[in-house]
Specification:
binds guanosine-5'-triphosphate; Phosphoenolpyruvate Carboxykinase, domain 3; Phosphoenolpyruvate Carboxykinase, domain 1; alpha+beta; 8-stranded mixed beta sheet; binds manganese (II) ion; Phosphoenolpyruvate Carboxykinase, domain 2; binds sulfopyruvate
Length: 590
């Protein structure tokens, strides 16, 4: 299994160079076969890196615990290393590439001594398709290998598709000492390179995901005229069989997986409506020959938030995790070797270990699962997976939806007035922070297009790219903003959310087809309550009216915050967006 799988000299030379630095005891190529995957699972269980779960109840499922200091993405230790600092922009952390390579080379020096270096050839997108891009990740972690086997398309066919070309993303990962002080997630977009060291967690180490498919890909997309976005993709099937596709960008842990897999309320189901999942986290978007915007999900699995997932909130996600799944940092039920997390059901196990692996007393008020605990599950196990999931052309997009967690200010839904205005709406997104990244939780921060941590270049240039794309798309999607998270005076969510969000999506699609009127407000078009289908929902129309309310005073406060943020982004903010901001302020003051 250690045999070389390619003659590509760019690949071989690079691996040679990385192996000289990290000095592994051996090198193993990952070929994507079930047999090799099974051997690796067995090895991981023998060392305690993973625990095999109850194979009758959860066939093919395993549990992993990360180090206690290593449970989320670390945005403060994530860097965009362009030669010129201006090209990384003010929002990203930056280190000079030469200095960064030198600093990290010391951390990688001998980091794999006595260990195995795994070579993972993977594809983001369908191997051989126009949309696909290839990467190779070198890692000393079996956990990473097993996750990448689920999250991406791995195997020799990737190397065959690459042929003798140099065009692959070079990813190097070493767990090293898991030392927080020396943890680095570094991107070199000008060199197609990613270096990650001293972490073993999710988005820090599964280099195909945020590092490649968003940070490096957003950089490539700007150069090549396409877009890489932090978006789910879903299809709504109408009773006559027609399917309309929507993408939605929400920040981490703000409901993408849930919306992507939503189950329509009963009265829609009875009429024959269905929802299909194409992706739950990342979309690559291109202009199709028909002049519309088309999307693919470059991933092959779901790395989803476990807490809060249950058979009411997201039965499709729960079903997806019943086999071939890796659980990370959840509760281990010792009685039957299954898993549990807060919000799964009301019966926390009595005889259990918490995410740290300590005996857990569910009555002592402590959390059993980490708030950012996750499942890694195969897309093909998802009951509502779209039959376009493996279509190399992707799906045509009717609407783009932005959204975040806002206790006040943003209404349940509003529509922008143009692509330019929609780009502005994306640029002013804000959301309360979550456990998906380390740091304080619940603080409102600007998170444009849900991409603040994921743009691989200057944020102002990124907005400029959005505006440019709008000029190039003959028939662009309409752009909307939603907020499922408005709260009452006691802090409870007012809108029921989850499957009920379908009602808002239906209004969005009706607007795209010009089928309903809307109320013009200073921020854009808001629904008339009568046009939101509330059948079967136990909610007062007055309350819905409140959810749709646009409070000019709050918005003017927001405008001040937006000005501050734009100033922070700096000199590359497009003037069109300042025009939009000034016009918004004028309308609010009237
Ligand atoms: P990442 O994988 O980090 O990118 O997150 P995500 O955007 O896919 O978020 P996910 O769907 O996993 O949801 C995160 C949390 O938000 C979970 O605790 C959900 O229960 C909660 N959530 C999702 N949708 C809704 C909703 O409509 N209303 C409310 N109140 N909570 C929701
Ligand atoms: C997110 O934080 O947006 C995630 C999880 O999807 S991670 O892969 O860790 O980035
Ligand atoms: Mn995400």
């Amino acid at each position: 299994m250690s045999a070389t799988m390619t003659k590509n000299r760019y690949v071989l030379n690079w691996i040679d160079e990385m192996a000289k630095m990290t000095r592994p005891a051996k090198i193993v190529w990952i070929d994507g076969t079930e047999q090799q995957e099974e051997e690796l699972r067995r090895e991981a269980c023998s060392t305690g890196e993973m625990t095999k779960l109850n194979q009758e109840l959860l066939p093919g499922c395993y549990l992993h615990r990360t180090a206690i200091n290593d449970v989320a993405r670390v945005e403060g230790r994530t860097f965009i290393c362009t030669r010129k600092k201006e090209d990384a922009g003010n929002i990203n952390n930056w280190i000079d590439p030469k200095e960064c390579y030198a600093r990290l080379s010391k951390l990688y020096d001998g980091a794999m001594e006595g260990k195995t270096m795994y070579v993972i050839p993977y594809s983001m997108g369908i191997v051989g398709s126009d949309f696909a891009k290839y990467g190779i990740e070198l890692t000393d972690s079996i956990y990473v290998v097993l996750n990448m086997l689920i999250m991406t398309r791995v195997g020799k066919n990737v190397l065959d598709a690459l042929g003798d070309e140099p065009g692959f993303i070079k990813g190097l990962h070493a767990k090293a000492q898991l030392d927080e002080e020396n943890r680095y997630i570094c991107h070199f977009p000008e060199d197609n390179t990613i270096w990650s060291v001293n972490s073993g967690y999710g988005g820090n180490v599964l280099l195909g995901k945020k590092c490649f498919a968003l940070r490096i890909a957003s950089y490539l997309g700007r150069k090549e005229g396409w877009m890489a976005e932090h978006m789910l993709i879903l299809g709504i099937e109408f009773p006559d069989g027609e399917i309309k596709y929507i993408t939605a960008a929400f920040p981490s842990a703000c409901g993408k997986t849930n919306l992507a897999m939503l189950i329509p309320p009963e009265f829609y189901r009875k009429k024959g409506f269905k929802v299909w999942t194409v992706g739950d986290d990342i979309a690559w978007l291109r202009i199709g020959r028909d002049g519309r915007l088309w999307a693919v999900n470059p991933e092959n699995g779901f790395f989803g938030v476990a807490p809060g997932t249950n058979d009411k909130s997201n039965p499709n996600a729960l079903a997806t995790t019943k086999k071939n799944t890796i659980f990370t940092n959840v509760v281990e039920n010792l009685d039957n070797e299954t898993v549990w997390w807060e919000g799964l059901d009301k019966n926390p196990p009595k005889n259990a270990l918490n995410w740290k692996g300590e005996k857990w007393d569910c009555t002592d008020g402590s959390k059993g699962a980490h708030p950012n605990s996750r499942f890694t599950a195969m897309a093909t196990n998802c009951p509502c997976l779209s039959n376009k999931f493996n279509d190399p052309a992707g799906v045509p997009i009717t609407a783009i939806v932005f959204g975040g967690r806002r206790a006040r200010t943003a209404p349940l839904v509003y529509q922008s007035t143009s692509w330019q205005n929609g780009t502005f709406v994306g640029s002013i997104m804000a959301s309360e922070t979550t456990a998906a990244a380390s740091g304080a939780v619940g603080v409102v921060r600007r998170d444009p297009m849900a991409m603040r941590p994921f743009v691989g270049y200057d944020m102002g240039d990124y907005w400029g790219h959005w505006l440019d794309m709008g000029k190039m798309i003959p028939n662009p999607p309409k752009i909307f903003h939603v907020n499922w998270f408005r709260t009452d005076d006691e802090g409870h969510f007012i809108w029921p959310g989850y499957g009920e969000n379908m009602r808002v999506l239906m209004w969005i699609l009706a607007r795209c087809e010009g089928k309903v009127d809307a109320k013009k407000t200073p921020i854009g078009y808001v629904p008339f309550v009568k046009d939101l289908d509330l059948e079967g929902l136990d909610i007062d129309e007055k309350i819905v009216e409140g959810l749709l309310d646009v409070d000019a005073k709050l918005w003017l406060e927001d405008v001040a915050g937006i000005r501050e943020f734009y100033a922070q982004v700096g000199s590359r903010v497009p003037t069109e967006l300042y025009d939009e901001l000034n016009a918004l302020e004028d309308r609010l003051k009237k």
